[in-house]
Amino acid sequence: MTVLQCANDIKYVQYLSTIIASLGAASMGTSFSWSSPSIPMLTSSDSPIGVQLTHEQASWVASCFPLGMIPGSILAGVSLSKIGHKNIFFCCSVLFLTSWILVTVSNSLTLLVTGRIIGGLAGGAQISILQLYVGEIADKNIRGKLAVFPTANAQVGLLIGLGIGPFVSFQAYSIICAVIALVYGVTVLFIPQSPYFLMKKDKEQDAQKSLQMLIATLRTKNKNEASLQEIRSTIEYQTKNKFTIKKLLVERRYRNSLLMVIVIKTLSDFSGGYAINSYVQTVLDESNSSLSPEVASLIYGVIQVVSIFSSAFLIDKVGRKPLSIVSSGGAALALISEGVYFYLKDVKHIDTNDFNFLPVLALCIYRLMVSLSLSSLPYVLVSELFSVDAKEMCALIFGTYSSILMFTNIKIFNPILEAAGFHTLFWIFSASCILAIVFVAVLLPETKGISFNAIQDKLDSKK
Which residues cross the membrane (predicted)? Predict the structure, then answer.
C-alpha cells in the first residue's frame, strides 16, 4: 500500500530504488534461463562438470531452483516484520552469489544441485517481498509502472541467459551471473528502507528521512507530513486490527483478494512461461528451424524484454483488464499454432520443411504477447489487492504457492513431453491462456488509477 502522493515531478529515488531492488529479480531470471543453454551441455558426452547427466537428472537440476524457492518464500515471510525488506534483499544477494560460486566450481551432480537450491532460497525470498517493497514506496500515479519493473528485470536476466549462455563456456556464464549478484548486494545497501516498516518499529525519525528521500524529485526535496501521518494512522489501524487466518477465510475482501491473485498466478504459470524459458533451446532444436537454436533463443529473449518494458508504459494508460485480455488472447493463438506445427510434424509425419519458420515465429509472438501483461499481472495485483494488514501473510502464501507452481511447471515439462509430445504441452498452455481471458474479463476488478481504499471496496462488494 502507498500513500506517497506528491508532485507530478519524476520521483527518481522511487525509480532507482525499484530498479536496484529488482536486480534480485534479474538474478532470479538468470537462474531460470541458465537451464536452457546448460542442460544440452550437461547431457552431452563433453559435460562441463565431468559427469554426463541423464535427462531425468537434468530435469531435477532445472527444477531444483524453484524447489529451493519454497522454503525461501516461507523464511522471507516470517522474517519480514523482524528485519525488513532491505536486509532480506542483502541476504538474497549473498545467497545468489554463493549459489553461482558453487555452480562455477561444480564437479558433481550433488554440488550442482546444492548450488541451485541455495539460489532458489534467494529466489523464493525475492518473490515473496519484492512487490511488497515496491508497493510501499511507489506513488499511486506510477504504481502500476513500478510494479512491472521486477518482472522486467527478471526478463533482462532471462535475456542474459539466452543471449550469452549459449556463446560462452559453462563457467564463464556462471561468473557473469555471480557479478550481477555482487552488484545487487553492493547497491541494495543504499536504497531507503520502507517507511511502513520503520514506523512499525517505532523509528519515526528514520521513517521521515526515508519518506523524504522517496518523495524527492529532480527539482525539490520537500517534506510531506501528511503522508507520514497517513502512514502512522495505517500502522496504528493495523496494530489494533491484528490479521488472522480466520479473517482471511471469513471476510470477503481478504478472501477475494487472495483468490484473485492465486487464480491469475495459476493461469499465468500454466501459460508456459517458466517451463518454456527453461527449455527454450530444446524446443527450438526440435523445430528444424533454419535459424540455429542459439540465435533463435537470443531473438526470443530480446522480444520478451522489449515487450515487458512496453507493458510498463502501457499498464497505467490502457488499464490492467484490456491489456491482459489482449496479452492472453495473443499468447493463446501463438501456442495453438505452435502445437499444430508439432502435431503435423511428430504425429501425422507431414513434411513441414516449408513451414520451418513457424515455430520460431509463433514462439516469439507468444513471448511478445505473454510478457505484455499476463506474466507480470500477478505481481502487479500483489502490490494492489492486498490490504495493508493482510499484506505480509498473503504475500507469504503467494510466494510459497508461486514457488510450488514454478517447480511443478518445470518438473512436469520433460515427462509430459516424453509421454505426449510437444503439441500436447503447447495446447495445455494455450487452454490456460483462454481461461485467463475469461477470468480477467468477468471477475478481475480494474485497478488503474484507483486508490487502495476503493480497491478494497470493490473486493468487498457482493456483486
Answer: 12-34, 60-80, 87-105, 117-134, 146-164, 170-191, 257-276, 296-315, 322-344, 356-381, 393-413, 425-444
Cell, residue 59: 530435469
- Structure-block grid coordinates of residue 291: 535459424
Whole-number Å distance between alpha carbons of 91 and 110: 23
**Alpha-carbon distance values, 216 to 20, 131, 209, 312 (Å):** 17, 21, 11, 22
Confirm if 184 and 413 have CB atoms less than 8 A apart. no
Question: Which tens digit of pLDDT belongs to each residue from 65-115?
Answer: 988 999 998 898 888 888 989 999 999 999 999 999 999 999 899 999 999
User: In this structure, what DSSP letter does residue 49 have?
Assistant: T
Q: Which residues have CB under 8 Å from 392's CB, separation 6+? A: 77, 80, 81, 132, 243
Q: Going by C-beta distance under 8 Å and a sequence separation of 6 or more, which residues neighbour residue 77?
A: 128, 129, 392, 393, 395, 396, 399, 400
In contact, 65 and 120? CB cutoff 8 Å: yes
Judged on CB neighbours under 10 Å (0-12, 13-18, 19+), 340 is: middle
N- to C-terminal Cα separation, the chain: 24
